[in-house]
Design goal:
mainly alpha; Nitrile Hydratase, Chain A; two-stranded parallel sheet; 11 helices; 4 strands; about 10% strand; disordered N terminus
């Protein structure tokens, strides 16, 4: 019987760090390149892009119409496209209808406008439960919708990614597009939260 620590017992972060160090020592990985990729997906290719799409739709009715008609083309107008964003359908939340997105098979997600998917989006509990009991899951995540609001769950696939156009919060009518961008969150564009007024 051995008493050594197995790889299964090591925390994921520690195993990841060890793997990165080994690959770096062997010249197979450049840490600066990895940092650049991570930064790109956290900042440049991420929720800020989606927030710009939402703010434009809130302030430009013609753009909003194009976005809801052909999300991929309208999003590309703002310069956002790429892998995992080849076909994006946009649905709009209203006071009577609320949309929420899930990928029941894995973690299909519109990277060009939302960046990398959060861990809860990939969690098997979220993926299975939000389809069966969306109102309960949303409440557990902090979004308590009135019973009269109809909830529609959209299942992302490798062919189609979904983006939620959240409701514009009351009291933001005088804000510019640039002022609206920081209000929009990733979670509101997945449909598990609403955008709060400043």
């Amino acid at each position: 019987m051995t008493t050594g620590t197995t790889s299964e017992q090591l925390p994921i972060a520690l195993r990841t760090e060890a793997l990165e160090q080994l690959l770096t020592e062997r010249g197979l990985l450049d840490p600066a390149t990895m940092d650049g990729i991570i930064t790109t997906y956290e900042t440049s290719v991420g929720p800020l892009n989606g927030a710009k799409v939402v703010a434009r739709a809130w302030t430009d009715p013609e753009y909003r119409s194009r976005l809801l008609e052909d999300g991929t083309a309208a999003i590309k107008e703002l310069g956002f496209s790429g892998p995992q964003g080849e076909h994006i359908v946009v649905v709009e939340n209203t006071p009577a209808t609320h949309h929420v997105v899930v990928c029941t098979l894995c973690s299909c997600y519109p990277w060009p406008v939302l960046g990398l998917p959060p861990s809860w989006y990939k969690d098997p509990a979220y993926r299975s439960r939000v389809v069966k009991e969306p109102r309960t899951v949303l409440r557990e995540m902090g979004l308590d919708l009135d019973g009269s609001v109809q909830i529609t769950v959209h299942d992302s696939t490798s062919e189609v990614r979904w983006l939620v156009l959240p409701e514009r919060p009351t009291g933001t009518e005088d804000l510019s597009e640039e002022e609206l961008v920081p209000l929009v969150t990733r979670d509101s564009m997945v449909g598990v939260a609403k955008v709060a007024a400043p």
